[in-house]
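Hi R.,

Here's the chain you asked about this morning:
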Amino acid sequence: MSELEALLLGIVQGLTEFLPISSSGHLIIVPWLQDYTFLEDNEAFNKTFDVALHAGTLVAAISYFRHEVVTYLGAFFRAVRSRAIETVDERVACAIAVGTIPAVIAGGLGSGFIEDHLGEPWMIGIQLIVFGALLGWADRLPERRDVEGLTLRDGLYVGLAQVLALAPGTSRSGITITAARYLGFDRDSAARVSFLLLIPAVAGATVYSAYKAINDGLPNDVAGPIIVGTIASAVSGYIAIAWLLRLLRTHSYRPFVLYRYFAGAGILLLIATGVRSATFG
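And the predicted structure, written out as tokens:
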């Protein structure tokens, strides 16, 4: 992999991890459109590079929400020590913890199935459209609550929705924002809940994947692309968070819904016309 290709995929990862349009789907579709098979043909490097890109987006989220991270970490440990939830911060922190559990369990138990059976281009095209429609529907519902109203039950519901994002094309931020909007959270709060849930989920997945990659043996001569991809992912991810939260002050999620429709339809059209194959098999 060249540094230029790593730069492109790093930017794609950073932007699409936080915008509700599916990072895993785009990281499959972009090389598919280029007929670029290096990652598919080099599984060891692919896994290592994926860890690096997710580490970049994790850095972006922690950097942007550094004050909230410190506040909620402290609140969570206070609640654990006292075995009681007494403040708003403690309730929100515990709700985030509860929301992380379903994806961790599902990801751990179903990782093999996901890698073997999900993520084909035709599936991604359909999921972009279907879950885009769900986001558009939920975003038309009334805005009644903010982050401080997050309860343990809300955290569980949003966390269960996050499980669906294990399938490329769904979008982790997209489905969690959809669930939060369905529960009545305003647009800004829905995005913040989504991003705060990302931090522990991606942190756990990154540590686990890094451990596996090290045990399996790191490929040679990968330092350049990995460094470039990680930095690109972190910078573009930070920009994506700041831009989205600013956009939501005056706009709905409709631009992303439309993008998902056009992207999904475009993928299916390329497959239907024979320009690109529906699968990697």
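The chain has a mean pLDDT of 91.

Let me know if you need anything else.
M.
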